[in-house]
Design brief:
Length: about 350
């Protein structure tokens, strides 16, 4: 069993605390994240559940741009989503509450080599990572408590996004044997949450979180109880209320992440450090890969910045690590990403 690293602890904290509210506005405020219900419409495309990732990769129609971006067929009944930076807006409650991560909460970057990155990657099945140039190959699958749609496909407590990518090139395998080949498709784990509706369910998590917040800070008259709570807590309360109102009125356009604002998007290639394991899921035959939790868009000339470097460091725990590692990897592997 792998040793619990700082990255592991941070990601597990996000997964376990997501959906919980803090009992105190002091001290633990920075760790408070409202429950966000992953949601979108069911996939309407048919696919046999026993089809493997390799079989999916062969279902390609090169007659249109849309078919080039959707190399895999969605499994009928699965909950799907497709991130588009022009359509969706990244946010989190830290932004609204003016709360920043302390230096101890930030992910301290390791040197971006295969050995050190392996130590910082959770739930790997093999003993090594491989560096792959990958292109997004279709819609992401939304996993909520182990289910995609109504189908249980993995451990019940898991709630995250898996995005299909097609391998364009094996960039580095530490002179070892990479089990993947060009053209293979695997599903890469991503750590964010969506707010679109699913099966006509409303965003009832907002109402629940708001009720908990009011019970904690309001008096019997429904007003903030300043006799029991400080000005700092009042700012926290106001920020949370604004955040919930924003999500409620956003019609699903918000993406919630406290990890890193760089998300996989169709039409772009990325450097991904994947688990060197091709074990297929027993339910649907797809390869769900727990890769190193930062992906790198080396096609760009500069590392991505959400607002500013200083602000990003406070709002997203992996932002500094992303920029630090990106610069080293751009120098090392940049030639593989030139058009």
């Amino acid at each position: 069993m792998k040793k619990l690293t700082k990255t592991t602890a941070l990601i597990l904290s996000v997964l376990m605390l997501f959906g919980c509210t803090s009992n105190s506005a002091n001290g633990g405020v920075g760790d408070t994240t409202p429950p966000v219900e992953n949601s979108v419409t069911d996939s309407k495309n048919e696919s046999k559940t026993e089809s493997s990732a390799t079989e999916n990769s062969s279902a390609t129609d090169n007659t249109s741009k849309e078919s080039e971006e959707n190399l895999v067929k969605n499994i009928e009944g699965y909950q799907t989503f497709s991130y588009d930076a022009d359509k969706y807006e990244i946010t989190n409650d830290y932004i609204y509450c003016n709360i920043r991560y302390s230096i101890y909460d930030m992910f301290t970057p390791v040197e971006p080599n295969l050995d050190d990155l392996y130590k910082e990657t959770t739930d790997v099945k093999s003993s090594e990572l491989v560096a792959l140039k990958c292109r997004v190959a279709g819609d992401s699958y939304v996993i909520n408590d182990g289910k995609c749609g109504e189908t249980l496909i993995m451990k019940p407590f898991l709630s995250l996004i898996y995005t299909p990518v097609v391998i364009e090139e094996v960039v580095d395998s530490n002179n070892g044997k990479c089990l993947y080949n060009k053209g293979d498709i695997l599903y890469i784990s991503e750590y964010y949450h969506i707010t679109e509706q699913y099966n006509d369910r409303s965003l009832n998590f907002v109402q629940t979180a708001e009720e908990n917040l009011k019970a904690q800070f309001e008096n019997k008259s429904g007003e903030f109880d300043s006799s029991k709570h400080s000005e700092i807590e009042k700012k926290y309360y106001d920020g949370k209320m604004e955040y919930y109102n924003t999500l409620r009125s956003g019609n699903g356009r918000y993406i919630q992440t406290t990890w890193n604002p760089v998300l996989l998007q169709k039409g772009q290639s990325y450097l991904i450090f994947a688990d060197n394991d091709t074990t297929a899921n027993e339910v649907d035959g797809n390869i769900y890969n727990n890769a190193y939790p930062i992906v790198f868009d080396l096609e760009q000339s500069e590392p991505f910045v959400f607002k500013s470097e200083k602000e990003d460091n406070g709002v997203f725990s992996a932002s500094y690590a992303y920029r630090y590692q990106w610069k080293i990897l751009k120098e090392k592997y940049g030639e593989h990403f030139k058009s």
